[in-house]
Structure formats: structure tokens, C-alpha cells
Amino acid sequence: MKIGILAITNGGKELAADLAPKMPEALLLPQTDGVARALAEHWREVDGFVCVMATGIVVRAIAPLLQGKESDPCVVVVDEKGRHVVSLLSGHLGGGNDLARRVANLLGGEAVITTASDTLGLAPLDLWARGQDLACESKEGLTTASARLVNTGCLRIFSELAIASLPQGLAEVAEVEQADIVVTPRLGDYGNAVVFRPKNLVVGVGCNRGVSVAELRQACEELFVEQNLSQMSIRNLASIDLKQDEVGLLAFAHEQGLRLEFFSKEELNRVEDVAVSEAALRNVGAIGVAEPAALLSAQSNDLLVGKRKWHNVTMAVARANCTLSEQDRARQDI
């Protein structure tokens, strides 16, 4: 996380100079042309700001820059004595609340957190979902669900993923009709429930040389519509290493924002219980590409959709084993 520190008074500059060395990722920002200009110049270059000055100054300076919590950097405001550290902007997704707590700890001050879920001890729904690698279909639905959680203290969740634990404020239900939140890769009518798509599907891809991005895109769209699955749940693509230079495949992965994983024919041939392809054996020396590549990448035996063949493309879908947890997945390995 890249942090910019700004100060304007002599006392504020002293505090900023004391704080910066304690934060290796932080940089003291010059503001010879004023706070507003300094913030505007670095708005897209840093992940967060620590502003040692009055809150009103910061509010007026950032107002023209605001676009949305998904893209705005977090902003923390500190008084020049370091007594109060206010999480002003992007407290959840932007990491402002955590930054405020960290700065307060370094300065011996008090973090001021005003987001409702935090003050009530409830799960910040947007932050928890991101930590679990869940994509919400509707921003408006997520906002509504977050408000309902704060107002009622509890939301019911139905998940096709196994649940190891849930944060405070979320309770598992056995029937999808009872749920306020549904976690599933499957398309359907879930009433007023907010739908989260888990990133747990791996698409195995076999293709002929010179395949176009358009054909790959059409094949993927057709496959997921036919199988009643959401493409939002695609975690990554997988194929044989002979396709590492396949221009159309690389371009398709880039277009979709998906990671590509490749496997050797020896690795593919060790996968059991997949349909053997005579064409793949003849052309690349592997028993198949789409099915074994999907299973290897997913690290599971759950072949959700067997291979389907188009003119120049073969695709299959494997499901990775994922578990919902109270904790952010990124922090579970720390």
C-alpha cells in the first residue's frame, strides 16, 4: 500500500516527518502549490493519504476528485498533535479504517472510525466479500444489504460453497428461499436476495492454431449460458503449454481479465477419469487438453462441465474447492 503524507503547519510537518520513517511505504509529499493541487497530482498514484491538518481543509480539497469507493484512495486526517486519527474516506474497500488504526498506534493516538458496521461490531459486507473473493452482481444490492445488516443486525446466507465460519451478523440457512444473501455460480431467480459469485470455476481450453478471440469469446458465452452458469465465477483459464504463444488465447485472457495457467502433456496425461481425445493424442501427445487442464488448475476432481467442441475450440469447466470463512483469505496465511 503506497501512502502519501501531507502537512501544512510547522507542527504538522514535524509530526509527518516523525511518522514517515515508521511507514516504509509512505512518502512525504510536497505541496508548494497548496493542498488541493498536491492531492490532485497524486490522487491516482497512491493508495491512501495521511493528511496532518484540519478535516475541513481536506474535505474541500478532495471534493472535486471523488468518483466512487471502488476507485478512490483512502484518506486519513490527523491533528498535528497526533491525538485523533480520522478515517475520512474509503474506510472499507480502500483500507482507510485499517490505516487509521495503524497510524493511531504509531502516534499513540486514537483512531476515529465512523462506518456503521465497525461501530456496531458487524461484518463490513463489502470488505468481507472481497476477502472471500466473491463478486457481487449488483452494487445497489450490496448497498441495500449492507444497510439492512446495520439496521437489523443479521443477514441470512445460503451458500453452495462450504462454510467453515461466518463473521458476526451473518447466519447460514439451509434453504435458498430463506436467504438474504446467495453465494452461487448458478444463474437463476433468487428473489430479493443479493447474489455473490464465487471465483471457483476454471475453464480448460483446447484450441487450433490461429483461433480468433471472437470464437473463444462466443464459445465461452455459449457454454456458460447452456450450463446456467455465471461468467463472473470464472477464476482462470487453463491449457497445454504448447499454447503459451497462441495469440488469440492470450488476447482472450487479457480481454476477460483472466489468468492463464499452462501444463505439460506429461502432467495432463497423469489426470484420471477424463475423456480421451484421439485428436489431442495425435496432435499434441496428450490424452486431452480442456478437461485435464481444468482439473489440474482447479486442483480438484470436480469436473462440473465435460468438454464441448466447437470448430476451433474445446472447453470444459472444473470447480475448485473453496470454503467461506470469517477471516479474510489473504490474512489466513499470515
What features would you describe in this structure?
This protein has 13 helices and 18 strands. It is α/β, with parallel strands linked by helices and 334 residues long. It has three domains: 3-114, Rossmann fold; 125-198, Udp-n-acetylmuramoylalanyl-d-glutamate--2,6- Diaminopimelate Ligase, Chain: A, domain 1; 201-319, CobE/GbiG C-terminal domain (Nucleotidyltransferase, domain 5, 2-Layer Sandwich), CATH 3.30.420. A hairpin with a 3-residue loop joins strand 16 (303-309) and strand 17 (313-319). It is elongated and about 75 Å long.
A few lines on this structure:
The chain is of the alpha/beta class and 334 residues long. It has helices at residues 10-19, 35-42, 55-62, 96-107, 116-120, 125-131, 139-152, 213-226, 247-256, 265-269, 278-284, 290-298, 329-332; strands at residues 3-7, 26-28, 48-52, 74-78, 84-89, 110-112, 134-136, 155-159, 162-163, 170-172, 181-183, 194-198, 201-207, 234-240, 259-263, 303-309, 313-319, 323-324.
Features:
334 residues; Nucleotidyltransferase, domain 5; alpha/beta; Udp-n-acetylmuramoylalanyl-d-glutamate--2,6- Diaminopimelate Ligase, Chain: A, domain 1; 34% helix; single chain; Rossmann fold; 13 helices
Question: How many strands in all?
Answer: 18
Q: How many structurally independent domains?
A: 3
Beginning-to-end CA distance, first to last residue? 17 Å
Specify the overall morphology: elongated
Number of helices: 13
Helix-and-strand structural type: alpha/beta
Q: Main sheet, how many strands, which sense, barrel? A: 6 strands, mixed
Second CATH tier, the architecture of the largest domain: 2-Layer Sandwich
CATH topology (fold) name of the largest domain:
Nucleotidyltransferase, domain 5
Q: Kindly report the average pLDDT value.
A: 90
Radius of gyration using CA atoms only:
24 Å
Please mark out the parts with pLDDT under 50 across 5 or more consecutive residues, or reply none.
Answer: 329-334
Q: Strand-residue fraction? A: 15-25%
Please give the order of strands in the largest beta sheet. 2-1-3-4-5-6
Helical proportion? 25-40%
Oligomer: single chain
CATH class of the largest domain: Alpha Beta
The CATH superfamily of the largest domain bears the name: CobE/GbiG C-terminal domain
